[in-house]
Specification:
Radius of gyration: 33 Å
Low-confidence stretches: 28-51
Distance between the termini: 119 Å
Order of helices and strands: HEHEHEEHEEEEHHHE
Mean pLDDT: 80
Number of domains: 1
């Protein structure tokens, strides 16, 4: 009798242990596969290349000498300035550090063809006489006014400026303009589209100004971001009215 009771107790205990083991295994199988991995941590860079805003207008000067460009522009109260501070508008003009043999100048102190095309013309001629190869770009996405000018040693090689009408059209159309399908009207040519389905060439011109700049010199928005904080340029205000 005692032997039968002992066998019964042993059987019940064994079944209980087996049930517990089976239950634990089922819970493990039901758990998500990712539960056994450490959470993945992602880091976001403080500065991304997309955060750099392209200025509405700028100069590209074939030079590596900041002081020479500063002297030609006649900056008042010049001070060292990073590229990011220059883009933020620390001065009326910002002379960027040399990049691939070019120095960019940007800021609201640059004369605009749609304000006074004659002042803009004289300014660019004077700068080019002192510095050699000079390029000017302007692309306003709000007004659709745009311009591109290329000079060498005080001579206009190519120029086109638009602000509701053609303000400046000088020189022969270049191969780069042809490749980008940039459209340039004569002074008396109307700007109406022939049909509603025709693309708006004015907006297209504005969008392609940086592409032309990249072919002729540099697009400011395509600068290596490592240079934006480490390299210093010069910020200041024009000391005279151009």
């Amino acid at each position: 009798m005692l032997l039968m009771l002992f066998s019964l107790a042993l059987s019940i205990g064994t079944m209980t242990v087996l049930f517990i083991i089976h239950h634990v295994r089922q819970r493990r199988l039901a758990a998500p596969a990712s539960a056994s991995y450490e959470p993945v941590m992602f880091t976001v860079p403080v500065l991304s290349h997309a955060s750099v805003r392209r200025p509405p207008s700028w100069l590209a000067i074939k030079s590596r000498n900041l002081r020479t460009v500063q002297s030609a522009l006649g900056l008042h109260n010049p001070k060292p300035c990073s590229f990011l501070e220059g883009l933020a508008g620390e001065g009326k003009l910002f002379i960027a550090p040399p990049i691939q043999g070019w120095i960019l100048v940007l800021g609201e102190g640059l004369p605009q063809p749609d304000d006074d095309v004659d002042i803009c013309y004289r300014f660019l001629i004077n700068i080019s006489r002192r510095l050699g190869e000079v390029q000017f770009y302007s692309a306003n996405r709000i007004t659709s006014n745009h311009a591109w000018v290329r000079l060498n040693r005080g001579r206009v090689v190519r120029a086109y400026a638009w602000a509701g009408k053609t303000l400046w059209h000088q020189g022969r159309k270049t191969a780069s303009e042809e490749a980008l399908s940039l459209r340039c009207l004569d002074y008396t040519e109307a700007a109406e589209r022939s049909s509603l389905s025709e693309p708006d060439w004015i907006i297209s011109n504005v969008e392609k100004v940086p592409l032309l700049a990249a072919r002729w010199s540099l697009d400011p928005a395509c600068i290596d971001e490592r240079l934006l904080e480490t390299e210093l340029g010069i910020a200041g205000k024009p000391s005279r009215r151009y």
